[in-house]
């Protein structure tokens, strides 16, 4: 006589269970999901800035962060979602430091001088930020357009310049007719070129653009160019 088997059917998984289980597993493994996300963003910034969106590999990011592709997708949705999050964090970083410069406590000329010098030094010290921006321009801003946060992150940058300029106009030390966005563009262009074209310019003209002394000279030149442009 054959023995009867009583095989119990496994319960059907409900939609969303896998995500919740992954979240619980991640929390149990690290006890700090936010730290894990921060680590993923930091490594992804290096990968995207050096290899671009198409060249970066989620497998490599997962290996370097000791996580998994599934976990990265759980947090960021897709490779493109991670890329957008990296872009947002890059802009959030520079804008957050700008907000701590205490520009409103300085006379307008000194405030503008400090802002320009900071922009130059930040971009010079963070070439990965410049490479990210260059990569996104290759994509014609396609992914920044999908961000719901990027405009809000950058409004304070224009507001800061507008307030400095308005105070300078009230004190009659800045000339009339300047647009804050155009002024921001001019500052960005001068500081951006210093990093984006450093290697090609140095090679073509056999001109030192990398040493600390050369960077200080260029920073001071950029600051003076902007100040002379706006002064009455």
Q: Provide the structure class.
A: mainly alpha
Shape: globular
Give the amount of beta strand, in percent: under 5%
Main beta sheet: none
Radius of gyration: 24 Å
Q: Quick one: how many beta strands?
A: 0
Number of helices: 11
Span of the ends, CA to CA: 106 Å
How would you portray this structure in words?
The structure is a single chain. The protein is an all-alpha fold and 232 residues long. It has helices at 17-30, 33-55, 58-65, 69-76, 79-98, 108-125, 127-138, 150-170, 180-196, 198-205, 212-230. α4 crosses α5, α5 (79-98) runs parallel beside α8 and α6 (108-125) packs parallel to α9 (180-196). It is globular, with a radius of gyration of 24 Å. The model is unreliable at 1-13 (pLDDT under 50).
Tell me briefly what this model is.
The chain is mainly α and 232 residues long. 72% of the residues lie in helices and 0% in strands. It has helices at 17-30, 33-55, 58-65, 69-76, 79-98, 108-125, 127-138, 150-170, 180-196, 198-205, 212-230.
Topology diagram in text:
Elements: H1 17-30, H2 33-55, H3 58-65, H4 69-76, H5 79-98, H6 108-125, H7 127-138, H8 150-170, H9 180-196, H10 198-205, H11 212-230
Helix pairs in contact: 2-3, 2-5, 2-7, 4-5, 5-8, 6-8, 6-9, 6-11, 8-9, 9-11
What brief labels describe this structure?
11 helices, 0% strand, globular, 232 residues, mainly alpha
